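call fold(seq) -> tokens
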Amino acid sequence: MVGDGSENSILTHSPPVLRIHKRHSARSFQLVLFADDAALYYRARYKISILLHLQRAIDELAVANKCLRLGYSPRAWKVAAIKVIPKPGKDYYSRPKSYRPIGLFSVIGKTVERMLVCRIKWHIMPKLQARQFGFMPQRGREDSLYDLMTHIYNELSLKKIILMVSLEIEGAFDNVWWPAIRNQLLAHKCPVNLYSMVMGYLRDREVVVRYAGGESRKMTW
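ret:
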């Protein structure tokens, strides 16, 4: 069965030639040839649909690049629709901590956010301290633990006393001080357009909670 002719059938149903060939033959190179033929068949059959999606992607990319050049963050990208999900295994669901809120943002807004982060990293990462391990490519907690243990062993070999203080910040993302972000971007000479977009990204944000037939809205800044 090939499918019902809809776009979803491409993803949920395998081409019949693939299933028949996998059942009766083990030669993988022939399977690849059949897969190529099937891909060409579906591409021709759904060419118009693919072109429409491609044009939409091109338009959205143009909007994203324009916003990044101008340093502009649209209002619609800063509205979070909160979905409240009950946590499993809780005895009482009358307490707020028995629920997990998840904020859903615009897809294109999240995409531009990732593009913005990548561009900021490109400008700022070379200026960061070598001991910065969090949110750094090819660095992680294993590297920080290795450096820590190396330092401890070196000091112990010199008969020194080791004192360590560990600080745990609960809800670090929720409690980030936004003026500090602004000051650090200025200190690291972040490009004007990226700085402006970050400032716009942090302004006029709104949270919309819909649950049990009710709705609540709150501006976060």
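The two ends are 54 Å apart (CA to CA).
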